[in-house]
Fold:
Amino acid sequence: MLKYIVRRLLIMLPIILGIIFIVFSILEFTPGDPVSMILGQDATPELIKLKREELGLNKPFLTRYITYVLDIVRGDFGTMYASGNSVGEAIARRLPVTLELSILSILLAVIVGIPLGVLSAVKQYSIIDIFSILFAMILSAMPGFWLGLMLILIFSTKLGLFPSFGVGDGLISFILPCITLSATYTAVIVRMTRSCMLEVINQDYVRTARAKGATESHIIGKHALRNAMLPVLTTVGMYFGALMGGAVIAETVFSLPGLGTLLVSGITAKDTPTVLGCVTVIATSISLINLSVDVAYAYIDPRIKAQYASMGLVKVKVRKRK
Amino acid sequence: MKHRRHAVLIALVLAFLTLLTACGTGREEPIESGVDGESPTTGVSSGSRTDLIIGLSTDILSLDPQAGLASNDFNVHMQIYGNLLKYDENGQIVPYLADVFEISEDELVWTFKIKQGVLFSNGEELTADDAVFTFDRLSQNTSFAGVFAYIAEYSAIDEYTFEIRLNKPYFILKYLLADSKYAILNREAVESGGENWANDPVGTGPYKLSEWSTGEEIVLVRNEAYNLSELPPIETIHYKIITDANTMAVALQSGDIDFVGGTGIAASLVSQFASNPDYTVLFSANSAYEFLNLNTQKAPFDNLVVRQAIAHAIDKDSIILMAAEGNGVKADTQLADGVFGYDSTIEGYEYNPEKAKELLTEAGYADGFSMTIYTVGARINICEIIQSQLAEIGINVSCEPLDLGAFLATISSGDYDANMMGLGLSYPEGESLLNPMFESSSAYNWCGFTSAEIDELILAVQSSGDDEYRQECYSELLTILRDDCPQIPLYYSMTNMTFDSSLNVPYVPVLNLYRVEDMSWKS
Amino acid sequence: MSEILLEIKDLEVQYLTMDATIRAVNGLSLILNRGETLGVVGETGAGKTTLALSIMQLLPKKIGRIVGGCIEFAGQSLLNASAKAMRSVRGDEIAMIFQDPMTSLNPVMTIGDQIAEMIELHSTDKNKKEISVKVDELLEVVGIPATRKAEYPHQFSGGMRQRVVIAIALACNPTLLIADEPTTALDVTIQAQVLEMMEDLKTRLNTSMLLITHDLGVVAAMCDSVAVMYAGRIIEYGTVEQIFDSPRHPYTIGLLNAIPNLENKSHRLIPIEGLMPNPALLPIGCSFHPRCKKCMEICRRQNPINFDDAGHRVACHLYFSNTEDT
Structure:
């Protein structure tokens, strides 16, 4: 198991380097010059040239790429072109917000979605089942932007229960944004849990458990859930990654100072250090999350643990004949 | 045994999450300095309020005034720092940190007698040496290289006299000196503060920084050492950063914020406040200007008659109504009323589609032609209206929106038919727009229009201190531009300041740069 | 005189699907005595598994329904039992072994845990240590080293998994063991081992067994009595000797004839022609009549009742010499 984890960590490095290269190339070869945008109306060709030199933008592509990579490896994310502010500091300030938003959203989706999915599988075709399918459909149909604004209008303006912007009020500030973000994912988790549970409930070993005289709740809790959770876990891992990069909508509507908005503003300004810094952090987070999910698999399903162990690194032990 | 392993794992995950929740609300390292800000007292009767909550549409880049790029930066810097000159409530340039400001006969020596006894927020007295230090710093920044090309040298003649020697007359400098980028910094504070001196900014303004939670909020408190005039009635300013226009309107509606300045409330949302007596909306129409450029280097736009035809085909009133919800003032020339150089006698091309068709036929394009208009962002709406208007005279327009970077790159390559854009004024004088738009070598000349005459006239307004003469030059400039029609002025977009009616805002500031020290709560 | 352990009378079980009603069990009656091994024999589709599931009340909830008859176990009616009572019966008094060992075990639980679960469900007084000891004992009994109890099902072969299943079934020392084709999915050689083990356990623990199979060889080896099932009914019942030496029902005769015989020099197998009837569309009269070589007029009209002769029962009109077409 440890070898597996180490191998995965080692593979992460070239992947992230590759991502940085691709993003860097995209920034390089798409039209748009950050310097013109910084200098604005006062720009003359000489000024532009001066500024480019100042920012090191006149150096060749590969030189800049390698410099960036070496810097990032040393933990130096550079400074923003326009303000000279440290990218690393900005990321460090914003990463916790995005992380918190993502984690809480996933938690919410899981806490609401899994029980609902289990219930509707166990009571297939009942009122609860129909309700949860409808619920899932409605949730996934609501566009995030609209939902966020609606929540603000109802719960912030009319009822005054929650703040409409910012993270100033601690955990409460995250409630409306999390509901907004988790809506689609809750719907998916409900449906996925339901179908996985249905599949598992009809398996032979569940019948064996019944034949042992176990109660329904024991069967669901001890036998069915664990087997049904594997695909759901995959989904959770996938969505966590998506949330890390894609929480932009909630961050914008609720004015949360997170990574998503930093990345978007960096792209608009073609501020390479900002974009690369954010992308590196996001890519690393997603890789680590994927690794965690895969490791969690091994704990849930021993067959997968055996698979990891036998992935060519560990020799199969041959039993000696007595 | 296995259950224990699971329990440990779950406990670890939960602990990790709790840790995150405890630390990660974005408030971990607010940049504090000096006095703690008071918490705002919302809902208290306006008479006793001493705080003001302002909605800011983006976070500021930095508290270093020389790094300011957008109007939000300038707005905040203006409360903290002071300049040698400033705009008064009528938009006129007057001395501020200087008592007296003189320009020599040969127009090359600018002398400032600095007020004595003015204190920075750190207790240091303002001297000419601080001005020298400020200019040293500016001269090292490439963003200001264009201005410093006019400056031969600058020095402190004595403790309270600062002198700038130009190598040729440049009267635009007086506007620049009032711009927050040129705010006077305290040598002591910046040198001892090192790289991060801006975390504890020191200025001569009526307010100073209390706290900056990046991305969230900036809190300013009254600078009790401020002695340039009376202490302002508002003691605390909370700038709340609200990035979404809808959320901004909702926040104002619910009383979470009191005031929105800068670009104000979005045009589509402002009417609900305008019709509500609890809120006051002050419009101003002299800070941004929308226009349609034609590439005079490329056929058929190199033909004056074609350009005039297009000018006649555009119905500016419709555009203002449909794209800006009526929040705009029709532009006959490039300059709006309130901008120096404005000439009300110069008329634009009236909307006359028949005449437009005639002119097109005269130019040999009776069947019309196709063209592409590049634009940026939300201006696509305006473009589409132009598209339908030009279709009436047989011109087939396709609109292409680009992001700013791509736009600049495309236009600078020269490969375009037309573009529709807007520009803001840096100072209330025509040169602020006309120079970048029409000077031959300017990177913002997006109509390929080069004219020695225009260049000369621009030079003239830059280097003359005679208002009458300057106005003559502007009138001539505007006439040439109207006659040659490389650009069709569309309208001046109106920005607004929207706020709680209990707040007393005595004047509409030039360029939307408001001073909180002049505001107060009505009792 | 043996004591009756399990008595089933006129049991009728149906599956309700959207297309049709499937009559899986149609008026089935049988008796199992304490200490006896009763083999239930029949082709695929005869309703044998349905019978087993009905006794355990494990029919698929929405679809399967017991619509008639009664099942009595040790004097108590199972059909009237509460859910709670049924749960305490399952595993503790009646245990079941299913057909496919590959899927009968939970892949993410150790076999030790799965055996322990059975014990825990029915005896709340044992502590962890005692249960662990019992698990080791059971594993020993079925021939699996106790050191392997922390391993997972996928680490065992088919035969060993079936042993685990048997260990689970016998964990609480049930009175009745229902084995539904326990060796069908195993290799012949392993089959022999497992059957031997079951025989041994059965004798030691004095467990009664209802052995469901389609393999007459297994019946011959293991069973005391045999019940032959066709289209949801028992059409012949008797001791192993009675059935094998003097089969009465044409179907039973056909079954026995169909067994390939090493001594017989003929090259061809003798099948029973035709197919088992569609349980949704059973023929009127005797269910077997379309395939019966000895079919009579009355067979097409009336379902035969049992003809009993010293414990050897057969449901066939042939044996009612008194009956005449009326």
Notes: Chain A touches chain B through 65 residues (CB under 8 Å). Chain A has 14 helices and no strands.
